[in-house]
Amino acid sequence: MDSFLVSNRPMTAKDWAIDAAAAAASFLFGCVQLMLTASSIVIPDLALRQYLGMVNVVPDASVFVALALTTAPLIVRRRCPWPVFLFCFVAFLGFQDAFSGFSLTIVGPAVALYTIANERGRSEAVVGAAVAVAGLLFVDAPSRTASLAFFTRFQNIAFVAAAAFAGYAYRAHRAYVQATEERASEAERTREEEAARRVEEERVRIAREVHDITAHSLSAVSIQAAAAERLIDRDPVAAKEAVATVRATARSALDDIRSMIGVLRHGDEAETAPAAGTDRLDDLVSYLRGAGVEASLDARSYDSSRVPAHVDMALFGIAREAATNIVRHAGARTATLRLALEDGQARLVVEDDGRGGAPVPASDSATAVARAGGGHGIAGMAERVHLLGGAFSAGPKAGGGFRVVASIPVRGTEA
């Protein structure tokens, strides 16, 4: 932590070089001012110069030594801002009347005050400026004419006030630039995190879609192929129909995957097939029936025209995953799909009378569902609902069987 006497500011070789150059420049500026005021260049009229108390002589070495005492400490101005300022200012006041006809420049104390304002902040800048003004008003006792003394005092006060203001202004500017850079860096980091998050979401979405397509289609292909194998000897016509169903299902799955790959390769320019919605629920019923499950669909209370397309597609994806699970895992004889639009919610219920499974509590978190043992399929359904701000539950129902319930609000899900 910085103290009043010494600052803990880290100093590089470049910083020391800059401060040494500032001290040298201040000394040279004071030398030029001495030479100008001691010659007839500024005021060529001899009578006026004598009236003002100015002599036409060359300053001796003692004058330059005194000037050096007011500027040389600037080499350590940033490491010891207050000691440097006080030393330079006291030396300046002490030498004001030590040399007849000469006036030392206040550039040394002014640079030291600038450093305090720049390094230490507004409050210390105000204190330093007040000390300088008070010293110039009450300590500096001029030995020249009153008019020249007034002009010199006014000039010196203006210099120290300008130095304090310039130091604080540069400090404020530096803080503003730093804050702007930090905001830009934070914005860049946020953009990178957002891009990474979107990539991860897209990866999960693609994985879920591929899972839905392959699981549903391969289950149907497996069932129809098994049926064709059983019927090929005793009922060739039925076996031929089963093989045709296998071919159509495989072709549809390939089209879906080809469409998805086209999006990945070409972005929005890819030609894709319309996404599946609840208008294809009849295909799921046919799929269940083809697997030997007596299935029914009740969508009388549902109006797809009042439901956003992304919600409608999500409901179909959930129903497709639930139907695939029934065929692959439940061993059910009957299944019911109910779809309704009530109280601003699109509600899907899929029930079967199969073996059921471990209870999965109602949750809007895919992670919680997965931990409960629902597997990737149920976790994917829960994730779809959660992203759309809905509620999801899946678990055994009373009397046997399994129930999947998804409720998604039809408004406010655009995000």
UniProtKB/TrEMBL annotation:
<keyword id="KW-1133">Transmembrane helix</keyword>
<keyword id="KW-0812">Transmembrane</keyword>
<protein>
    <recommendedName>
        <fullName>histidine kinase</fullName>
        <ecNumber>2.7.13.3</ecNumber>
    </recommendedName>
</protein>
<keyword id="KW-0175">Coiled coil</keyword>
<keyword id="KW-0902">Two-component regulatory system</keyword>
<dbReference type="InterPro" id="IPR011712">
    <property type="entry name" value="Sig_transdc_His_kin_sub3_dim/P"/>
</dbReference>
<feature type="coiled-coil region">
    <location>
        <begin position="177"/>
        <end position="209"/>
    </location>
</feature>
<keyword id="KW-0067">ATP-binding</keyword>
<dbReference type="Pfam" id="PF07730">
    <property type="entry name" value="HisKA_3"/>
</dbReference>
<feature type="domain" description="Histidine kinase/HSP90-like ATPase">
    <location>
        <begin position="314"/>
        <end position="411"/>
    </location>
</feature>
<feature type="transmembrane region" description="Helical">
    <location>
        <begin position="148"/>
        <end position="170"/>
    </location>
</feature>
<dbReference type="InterPro" id="IPR050482">
    <property type="entry name" value="Sensor_HK_TwoCompSys"/>
</dbReference>
<feature type="transmembrane region" description="Helical">
    <location>
        <begin position="20"/>
        <end position="43"/>
    </location>
</feature>
<keyword id="KW-0418">Kinase</keyword>
<keyword id="KW-0472">Membrane</keyword>
<dbReference type="InterPro" id="IPR003594">
    <property type="entry name" value="HATPase_dom"/>
</dbReference>
<keyword id="KW-0547">Nucleotide-binding</keyword>
<keyword id="KW-0597">Phosphoprotein</keyword>
<dbReference type="GO" id="GO:0005524">
    <property type="term" value="F:ATP binding"/>
</dbReference>
<feature type="transmembrane region" description="Helical">
    <location>
        <begin position="55"/>
        <end position="76"/>
    </location>
</feature>
<keyword id="KW-0808">Transferase</keyword>
<dbReference type="Pfam" id="PF02518">
    <property type="entry name" value="HATPase_c"/>
</dbReference>
<dbReference type="GO" id="GO:0000155">
    <property type="term" value="F:phosphorelay sensor kinase activity"/>
</dbReference>
<feature type="transmembrane region" description="Helical">
    <location>
        <begin position="82"/>
        <end position="113"/>
    </location>
</feature>
<dbReference type="InterPro" id="IPR036890">
    <property type="entry name" value="HATPase_C_sf"/>
</dbReference>
<dbReference type="GO" id="GO:0016020">
    <property type="term" value="C:membrane"/>
</dbReference>
<dbReference type="GO" id="GO:0046983">
    <property type="term" value="F:protein dimerization activity"/>
</dbReference>
<feature type="domain" description="Signal transduction histidine kinase subgroup 3 dimerisation and phosphoacceptor">
    <location>
        <begin position="202"/>
        <end position="268"/>
    </location>
</feature>
